[in-house]
């Protein structure tokens, strides 16, 4: 959530920065006006409460001096009614302000490039060279036309489109990848955590999925529970409403979970294969840091994901997302895109984001600094990696002319 005091004080500057994310300035103006109005109404309420407290203390004085207290009682009753009205006004303004504030995205960092969408993202560097083939490489579904490994037809039969059943070597490879990724991340200092796949509404508000992206979530009917879209949600919310010790930071976590997304805005995109699924496996990285350490930890997470891809022998590139492609909660994001020879292009396989104090303000995650003052932490998250996309990237990059494929050496001990 935005710092509303900062918005009031530096409105023009913040509004200009949020233009990178195509935020309507009228919405920001309404937010600022509400904040100013709320401050005035709170001041009125505090004055009325001060009058009530002051006059209430006059009862013993009047009794001691033998004065009539009826007029004082009348004044207090009238003031009490004014307080009740004022409290209602303040509460309504607070609710309206909170509802609008929840819809405003995070402020992008200064070095985030301008742009409208993914075509304006900026490549930072390429890592490894894509493999060369003496034959025309196939896409992953062409390598397995009969559904021996990737059974799309039975996925539809069990659920609907964009669900896949993995069988034989693919099922083994998926499990091997998960274990390898977790072990790799643990060696980089990330503690393994197993979390629920269901979270409550408060958790999704804290990390920014709600209320804006409600249509992309699977909700459990008649429950205040949702299937997680990413392990970022439960991992970050482990510390919701907590004050952490300075010396315990940074906290670096990794977790394997299934993830569930309706993909509401992706109609017609990637309808074939396993690129875009309603249910997919992912190994996640999350970090909770002091503000002064978040940039350092951010690049550690980017390196962790990139080195993991390199260890699997998968060519990839690092891309800085432009403002128009930047996620709701992110102040900065680096996408890692792996090479798919069948498609002859790079495709996203990981996103690493620094949300600064945006999620921490929503979730009230704080730490005590050296002056014993409570400060908001910074939260970061990143994929390490999307397991299904890694699996099909291996199938395509390690394919042979007969349609079979090799397994990276580092995974063989896990099989």
């Amino acid at each position: 959530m935005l710092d509303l005091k900062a918005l009031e004080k530096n409105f023009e500057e913040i509004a200009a920065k949020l233009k990178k994310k195509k935020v309507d300035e009228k919405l920001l103006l309404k937010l600022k006006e509400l904040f100013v109005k709320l401050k005035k109404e709170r001041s009125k309420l505090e004055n009325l409460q001060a009058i009530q407290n002051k006059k209430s203390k006059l009862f013993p004085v009047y009794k001691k001096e033998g004065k009539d207290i009826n007029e004082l009682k009348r004044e207090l009753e009238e003031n009490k009614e004014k307080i009740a009205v004022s409290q209602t006004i303040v509460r309504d303004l607070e609710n309206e302000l909170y509802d609008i504030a929840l819809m405003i995205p995070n402020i992008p960092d200064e070095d985030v490039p301008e742009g409208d969408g993914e075509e304006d993202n900026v490549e930072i560097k390429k890592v490894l060279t894509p493999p060369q083939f003496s034959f025309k490489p196939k896409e992953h579904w062409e390598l397995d036309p009969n559904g021996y490994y990737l059974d799309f037809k039975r996925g539809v039969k069990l659920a609907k489109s964009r669900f896949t059943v993995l069988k034989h070597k693919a099922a083994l490879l998926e499990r091997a990848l998960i274990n390898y990724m977790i072990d790799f991340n643990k060696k980089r200092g990330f503690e393994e955590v197993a979390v629920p796949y269901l979270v409550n509404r408060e958790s999704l508000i804290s990390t920014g999925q709600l209320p804006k992206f409600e249509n992309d979530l699977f909700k459990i009917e008649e429950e205040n529970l949702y299937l997680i879209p990413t392990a970022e949600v439960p991992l970050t919310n482990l510390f919701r409403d907590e004050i952490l010790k300075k010396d315990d930071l940074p906290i670096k976590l990794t977790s394997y979970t299934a993830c569930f997304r309706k993909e509401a805005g992706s109609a017609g995109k990637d309808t074939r294969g396993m690129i875009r699924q309603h249910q997919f496996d992912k190994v996640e990285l999350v970090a909770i840091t002091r503000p002064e350490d978040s940039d350092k930890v951010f690049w550690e997470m980017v390196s962790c994901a990139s080195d993991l891809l390199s260890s699997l022998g998968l060519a990839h590139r690092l891309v800085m997302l432009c403002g128009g492609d930047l996620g709701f909660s992110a102040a900065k994001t680096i996408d890692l895109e792996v090479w798919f020879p069948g498609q002859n292009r790079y495709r996203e396989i990981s996103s690493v984001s620094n949300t600064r104090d945006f999620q921490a303000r929503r979730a009230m995650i704080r730490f005590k600094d050296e002056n014993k003052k409570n400060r908001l932490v910074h939260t970061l998250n990143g994929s390490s990696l999307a397991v299904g996309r890694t699996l099909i990237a291996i199938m395509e990059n390690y394919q042979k002319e007969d349609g079979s494929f090799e397994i990276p050496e580092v995974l063989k001990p896990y099989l």
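The CA atoms of residues 140 and 407 lie 14 Å apart. Residues 4-101 form a domain with the Helix Hairpins fold (CATH 1.10.287.40).
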